[in-house]
Amino acid sequence: MLSKTAEYALRATIYIAQKGTEDNKLGIDEVAEGIDSPKSFTAKILQLLTQNDRVVSSVRGRNGGFYLTDRARKLPVRAILEAVEEEEVITKCVLGLKECSETRPCPMHLQYKAIKKQLKQLFEKTSIQQLVEESNKGNLFINNQKAPKKRS
Amino acid sequence: MLSKTAEYALRATIYIAQKGTEDNKLGIDEVAEGIDSPKSFTAKILQLLTQNDRVVSSVRGRNGGFYLTDRARKLPVRAILEAVEEEEVITKCVLGLKECSETRPCPMHLQYKAIKKQLKQLFEKTSIQQLVEESNKGNLFINNQKAPKKRS
DNA sequence: TTATAAAAGGATAAATTTGTCCTTAATTAT
DNA sequence: ATAATTAAGGACAAATTTATCCTTTTATAA
Ligand code: FES
Ligand code: FES
């Protein structure tokens, strides 16, 4: 469905949104450990997410790290996909044809378009903040570890 | 969403089901041209689809080629995904966690599970034959060419 | 003002996916 | 039988994705 890059981007952003604020920034080590992802690769992906004021904010140097502004929290999840250039999942033909439309439908289009629409809704109508709120309510997971990792 | 391999596998199988029968087999050249895919690569993928009596049938030598048996036409589209080992799209966590379940849900699970269910239905409840029938009714496309290619 | 801590950035490497080419095996028309 | 035709299979190559490492820049604590 999504590339590793997009998966890590989503997990990292949600994790940072959950735990990070402007005066409690998260370091790359904590993020990578928190979402169970390769550290250096995750750092690269966070660069995409921070570039030109996109989704994630960052500060270098001592006490630096990653966090999300209130503005960013209101962004749709789709903004994360855009940052890693993977929105096409929302628009693409399931058979990989160059065009997907009513005027040029593939044999699966009629059935697939409903799914596509819901995917679109999922990514466009859901904000990062909403996911954080849900996480606060229920007991949700964002890594593969057995129990939430204790801070040392 | 799907890999090129899976996309070509779906397109090739549907195309063969549409145009090929036991006494009108299709050659790899026609298939690749018909679905707008790289010939040699498509040949490799068709090997996966023919191996141990899976989805596509083939005969070598003069008058050889690819076709679908009546049994194969009744198979769910999922059988094609299985042949290229890509069923996981139906079961995987959208954030890439190793497990996706009610007992270990990620922050998007609640919303995504409905989509997953429909994807599952699409691939399991739809048979190859059904797609062919739909194609016969409507004017559907399975390649990127402007109009259906004339046979020379 | 110096040392330390952190992200940014660049180069490179490893792994996987996608794609090609050539030989082999099988079938059939001649 | 022989030649022609076609898929199968193996080896390899190109492209892309995933991942690591090292240096540079920026900020702050001491
Ligand atoms: S054309 Fe294939 S899904 Fe729309
Ligand atoms: S756990 Fe993530 S989609 Fe089910």
UniProtKB/TrEMBL annotation, chains A, B:
The Gene Ontology terms for molecular function here are: DNA-binding transcription factor activity
Cross-referenced InterPro entries: Tscrpt_reg_Rrf2 (IPR000944), WH-like_DNA-bd_sf (IPR036388), WH_DNA-bd_sf (IPR036390)
Please provide, in alphabetical order, the Gene Ontology terms of the cellular component aspect for this entry. cytosol
Domain of life, per UniProt, equals Bacteria
A Pfam family (short name) is: Rrf2
PROSITE patterns, per the entry = HTH_RRF2_2
Entry's PANTHER family? Answer: HTH-TYPE TRANSCRIPTIONAL REGULATOR YWGB-RELATED (PTHR33221:SF15), WINGED HELIX-TURN-HELIX TRANSCRIPTIONAL REGULATOR, RRF2 FAMILY (PTHR33221)
Protein name according to UniProt: Transcriptional regulator, BadM/Rrf2 family
Please tell me the species this chain comes from: Chitinophaga rupis
